Amino acid sequence: MELLGEIAGDRPLLVLAVKEEAQFLDTGLPVLLTGMGKVNAATALATVLGRGPRPSGIVNLGTAGALRPGLTGTHVVGTVVQHDFDGRLLAMLTGESYGAPLTLPDGGDVVLATGDTFISDEVARARLAEQASLVDMEGYALAHVASVAGVPLRVVKHVSDEAGEGAARTWRESVAGCARVLADWAAENLPYRP
User: Fold this and answer.
1) According to the model, what pLDDT value does residue 97 have?
2) Could you tell me the pTM of the whole model?
3) d(CA 17, CA 44)
4) Cα four-point dihedral sign 101, 75, 187, 137
5) Are 130 and 82 spatial neighbours (Cβ–Cβ below 8 Å)?
6) How confident is the model at residue 44, as a pLDDT?
7) Strand pairing partners for 111?
8) CA–CA dist 50, 1 (Å, integer)
9) 119 touches 159 (CB < 8 A)
10) Which residue(s) pair with 82 in the sheet?
11) Is 80:101 a contact under the CB 8 Å cutoff?
12) DSSP tag of 32
């Protein structure tokens, strides 16, 4: 976890998993690098929100794998789900509901599936495509923490790979280009400057 800049109540906090995704950001906004995965994302965001002050909002920028052929570009996510969490089984066991899909304000119709597995095979991709169009490793965790804290969240993902065979190589090759697109999105949609 690394926090660059200072959080203030009158501006948003940018949250990204790794420095490779943040390398072209040119903003006066604070940036939180969480590390990859749900545990790192949740821990980092909860830590900075718990310390205070709280930002006016949170914007998660990052890369995502496309679960459907031909899906490219930048997407504002409308719903996040966990693909590696069996909430139905836990509800049967405990009578409590855990891990329900989360709807994000200002999001579109794009569904993002989050899990602690980097999807890089066709079988997993096809299974996940039944419930979502994009996959990442942090979105749901960030949405859950933001919801509990009462801070609005936007999730913006740029497609880096097709979440199939060769996805890891493709991500490494495309992350710099994705980072540039995400930085441009931030400059156009979050025009804060110090």
Assistant:
1) 66
2) 0.92
3) 10
4) positive
5) no
6) 98
7) 79
8) 14
9) no
10) 114
11) yes
12) E
For residue 42, the tally of other CB atoms under 10 A from its CB is 19
Helix (H) or strand (E) holding 148: helix 139-149
What phi, psi does 94 have (nearest 5°)? Answer: -110, -20
Is the Cβ–Cβ distance between 32 and 21 less than 8 Å? no
Half-sphere exposure of 52 (CA within 13 A, CB side): 1
- What does the block give as tokens for 111? 């569904």
Q: Nearest-CA neighbor of 118 among 101, 143, 135, 142?
A: 135
Say which residue, 99 or 122, is predicted with more confidence: 122
Calpha distance 173→144 (Å, rounded): 30
Look over the chain and give the mean of its residue pLDDT values, rounded to a whole number: 91
What count of other Cβ atoms lies within 10 Å of the Cβ of residue 164? 19
Least confident of 32-36, 78-82, 102-106, 174-178: 102-106
Other C-beta atoms closer than 10 Å to the C-beta of 152 total: 15
Closest C-alpha among 90, 133, 92 to residue 114: 133
